[in-house]
Each structure stands twice: as structure tokens, then as C-alpha cells.
UniProtKB/TrEMBL annotation:
Keywords: DNA-binding, Nucleus, Receptor, Repeat, Transcription, Transcription regulation. CDD domains: bHLH-PAS_ARNTL_PASD3 (cd11438), PAS (cd00130). It comes from Clarias magur. Residues 112-177, 316-360 form the PAS domain. One of its GO terms (molecular function) is DNA-binding transcription factor activity. It comes from the Eukaryota. This is Aryl hydrocarbon receptor nuclear translocator-like protein 1 isoform X1. The gene is arntl1a. One of its GO terms (biological process) is animal organ development.
Length: 360
């Protein structure tokens, strides 16, 4: 070493040099330990931040999945991408369902209101009518009602709809006019799991939500021209009463419930004390004559009008898909059949045979 042979001074210098080296080594080690600790602390802090971010995101994803009916119905846990995709689809559905049909942009600009009404009635082959939900008062009916019921507009407007219904159908129509039932009524079934999908859509006063739709059959009086007959033509008093009795037509009414301010309906609020400035709930619907299938035997065979619909079922017989044509045949809406078993609609005498065929 450089300090060898220097005596006491050399030993002191050597000791100082070794001490200085030790200090530098300790200092370097301390800095490394501090740097390592800082790195570990930084990684732990970053890990904690990432964990909190992931937990918060997972919490939001779970909350979003609970709000989307299609996600809520799934038995297995969905990945985040699937939840987001279903949420986007659900929002698109809601945006399409909440656009009111009365908006001006729903109608082509080149068509007037009268032209559009004429085209709709011609395509529907029926008559348009508006009925107040509170009293069943006919607020509007199109001129095409004359072709079906043989009543003019002036005969029906302002009258009570219940006066023109079959007595046995009045209660059913009153139930359809119940304006309190504007929440979604459809039972949505997931096609994969067969489970009921929950819907929590709260409709606004101007929205056309799915629960506001109405579709029902009822019998209405048909004002057919009467033919004068002599008393001798009636074999009995009972037959004469039957001849004087008005005939009824089966009308298939499809439409929706909607609320309007009384001023928009052309009503004077002063003449309607029960409204108290509230919106007037009405049924807007198109009535179509429901054709009756007449059985005509020809050469011993019965020829019937071909009527069929398509449905899909689970292994235990529950409806998971129903064609729209089922309404005209069964008088049930597709959403009323979804989730129910077809055994509920079979005749009791046929259940045993059909169950045997089902097992095979």
C-alpha cells in the first residue's frame, strides 16, 4: 500500500482511508436500500391504486349488469365486454321505445296528416278511434268506421264506447282502458336460459312504452239496415225479439295508451271538472273486422281457411318464441304466452294424449 512504512502517520491515514471507504460503502448501500424501499413502496402504491380502480370498475360493471334485463337474467357471470355490449343494445332499445309516435320527424315531410291517415287506414283495412280512458267516451273515429259498423262519425263521436259493446265484453274493455297499467307488461324470456327477464322501465307521460300497448278482441254493435217484416212472419215473440236485436261484429283493436293535455285534445278544461288540469289518458287504436272461419263441408270433407303460427318451446313445453299470427288465432299476445307452458292452454281431455306425444 501507499502508506506502508510511514509509521504512525501511515497507519492513521490508512485507518482514515478505510473508514472513508466504509462510509462510502455504507452510504451506497443505504442509498440502494432507500431506493429499493422507494421502488417497493411505489410498486405497492401503484398496485393499491390499480386494485382500487379495478374494484371500482368491477363495482360499476356489476351495477350496470343489474340494470340491464338481459344481463340480469343470465345464470353465469358475464365478462365485462359482454355486459357493455348488452348495455349498449339495451340503451338503443330504450331510445327507440321512448320516441313518441306523434313526433313530426316520424312522418315523411312530403305527406300531410290527412294523407298519412288515409294511407294507414287503407293499409290496416280498419278504422281509427280514440277513446277516453276515464269514461270510455269516443273522442274521435275515422270515416272508415261506416264500412265496418255502418255507423257514421256523427253517430259515434261523443258517445260512450260501452253502449256499443257486447255486455259480456264491457269488463274486458274496461280493463284494457285502465290507464294505471302503463308499465311494461311483457314477460321477456331469455332465449338461452329460459329465465324471466326483469324490466324496470319507468315510462314518462309522453312516452310510448311497451306496457302502454293494447291488443284485444271485442264484439261491437253493427248497425245493419233492418228489413220491415209483417207480424205473421214471426212465429213467436222470441223470434221477433231476435230479429230486432242488433247484430255484433268481432273487432280486433290494436293500439296504445297515451296522455295528452285537454287543450291538445280540443276539450275545454272548464267542461271537464274531473280532470283538474291533469293530462287526459286515451286509447288510440285501429279496429279491424275479425273474419270468422266458416266450416263448409264439401264432398264430405271440411275445408277450412288455413291458419297457422310458429312457436318455439323449451324441453318442458314453455313458450320461448311465438309468431305474431298467434294473436289472430288464439287471441293472446305473444308476450302473454312467453314463459308459460302450452299445457295451460290445452283442453283437459287432450292433455293426456299430448303429454304422451311429448314424452315420445
Amino acid at each position: 500500500m501507499l502508506f506502508h512504512g510511514w509509521g504512525e502517520l501511515g497507519r492513521c491515514c490508512r485507518s482514515c482511508w478505510e473508514t472513508s471507504v466504509d462510509v462510502r460503502v455504507v452510504s451506497v448501500c443505504s442509498r440502494e436500500r432507500i431506493s429499493h424501499r422507494r421502488s417497493v413502496f411505489s410498486r405497492e402504491a401503484h398496485s393499491q391504486i390499480e386494485k382500487r380502480r379495478r374494484d371500482k370498475m368491477n363495482s360499476f360493471i356489476d351495477e350496470l349488469a343489474s340494470l340491464v334485463p338481459t344481463c340480469n337474467a343470465m345464470s353465469r357471470k358475464l365478462d365485462k365486454l359482454t355486459v357493455l355490449r348488452m348495455a349498449v343494445q339495451h340503451m338503443k332499445t330504450l331510445r327507440g321505445a321512448t320516441n313518441p309516435y306523434t313526433e313530426a320527424n316520424y312522418k315523411p315531410a312530403f305527406l300531410s296528416d290527412d294523407e298519412l291517415k288515409h294511407l294507414i287506414l287503407k293499409a290496416a283495412d280498419g278504422f281509427l278511434f280514440v277513446v277516453g280512458c276515464d269514461r270510455g267516451k269516443i273522442l274521435f273515429v275515422s270515416e272508415s268506421v261506416y264500412k265496418i259498423l255502418n255507423y257514421s262519425q256523427n253517430d259515434l263521436i261523443g258517445q260512450s264506447l260501452f253502449d256499443y259493446l257486447h255486455p259480456k265484453d264491457i269488463a274486458k274493455v274496461k280493463e284494457q282502458l285502465s290507464s294505471s297499467d302503463t308499465a311494461p307488461r311483457e314477460r321477456l324470456i331469455d332465449a338461452k336460459t329460459g329465465l324471466l327477464v326483469k324490466t324496470d322501465i319507468t315510462p314518462g307521460p309522453s312516452r310510448l312504452c311497451s306496457g302502454a300497448r293494447r291488443s284485444f278482441f271485442c264484439r261491437m254493435k253493427c248497425n245493419r239496415p233492418s228489413v220491415k217484416m209483417e207480424d205473421k212472419d214471426f212465429p213467436s215473440t222470441c223470434s221477433k225479439k231476435k230479429a230486432d236485436r242488433k247484430s255484433f261484429c268481432t273487432i280486433h283493436s290494436t293500439g296504445y295508451l297515451k296522455s295528452w293535455p285537454p287543450t291538445k285534445m280540443g276539450l275545454d278544461e272548464d267542461n271537464e271538472p274531473d280532470n283538474e288540469g291533469c293530462n287526459l289518458s286515451c286509447l288510440v287504436a285501429i279496429g279491424r273486422l275479425h273474419p270468422h272461419i266458416v266450416l263448409q263441408p264439401v264432398n264430405g270433407d271440411i275445408r277450412v281457411k288455413p291458419t297457422e303460427y310458429v312457436s318455439r318451446h323449451t324441453i318442458d313445453g314453455k313458450f320461448v318464441f311465438v309468431d305474431q299470427r298467434a294473436t289472430a288465432i288464439l287471441a293472446y299476445l305473444p308476450q302473454e304466452l312467453l314463459g308459460t307452458s302450452f299445457y295451460e292452454y290445452f283442453h283437459q281431455d287432450d292433455i293426456g294424449h299430448l303429454a304422451e306425444c311429448h314424452r315420445q
